[in-house]
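Worked example 2:
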Amino acid sequence: MFVCDTTPDAAAVKTAAYRRMTPDQRTRAAAQMSAMARSITLENIRARHPEYGEHQARMALYRLLVGDELFHRAWPAEPLLAP
């Protein structure tokens, strides 16, 4: 079930703003939102696992992003750390 915390009026304003953007602007906005989501997730991993070093925290993030099978194929020597 999807829960939206945006009012219908606010969602309409946001949608209209995205529609006015050029494809390049929408692509940049999507990339920025993706980077922000990864940054927030990495901070949460660090908060849950203060014992992780920088490398370990990033590996836990990558595992979360790509799943166990692809993670193991990409980084076979890395342990499967909890995100």
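The mean pLDDT is 94. The CA atoms of residues 59 and 81 lie 7 Å apart.
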